[in-house]
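Write out a record, focusing on structure:
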Amino acid sequence: MKIVLLGGVLLTCLVHTAAEAKPENLALKAKVVATSEFNGQYSAAGVNDGIIPEAGRNNSAGKEWAAKGNNHPNGVTLTLTWASPVTIAEVVYYGRTCYAVEVFKQCTISVDDAKDPMLTADLKAGHGPQRMRLKQPLTSATLRLKFTGHHDCRNPGAAEIEVYSAPPEEKALGTFIEMKPMSHVENMHDIEPVIKETPELAEKLYTGKLGFDRMLLVERNPYHISHVYVYHVEAFKPGGGIHIFTPDAKGGKLEKIFDADGGMVMDCT
């Protein structure tokens, strides 16, 4: 989601992706335990709930896993267990970016009681999928992920862990955005992606090569409120609506599909 101010009107842009459907995420059926948990709201159960919190939203309690503190000399282990063996070809890691960029630096993958890992992967600081593909698919009822080291942060963890029996298409997973490690994020603007705006990036946007070719825009007047809990009263000012925006090099096409008239569209999900 991107929030921009255009002509004094606040536009909330929700990207509509044209991504292919993901194969079944086997992690959703697994029982997960961790050797370290920040507290009950950031337990291991948050890594396989199918929810990936947005970066900088500060609303991830109960939706992701965080280790307690950043001093883990022997690493932190997540163990996924299934009722019966499953085929594992790829594991996808999503770092924590909802409150801060809190991401581990390295992960080893092992199964059953094997002493040696099947794979060792380096992890970057950022938001989105980080793929860990095995050389050959294997079958097991137990998967262990051992995380060692961390980027500059207080409580590294994972927003989500996905497990697939066959590697998903790139478009199905989406794009990883590398970010600068930091201990705290005040808002989305404090998260600086490494990706820079360039003519080449603009061309990819115009031609749909970023995985989408249209945006859903919510048009409303800016909020001016005294407290977060009173936005539905103090912020009400009628007008705006919902638009579909098709970007192109000439400025794009904007089509209103819903007119708020005397009402107000606060958001759209």
About this structure: The longest helix spans residues 199-206. Residues 1-19 have pLDDT under 50 and may be disordered. The first strand starts at residue 2 and ends at 6.
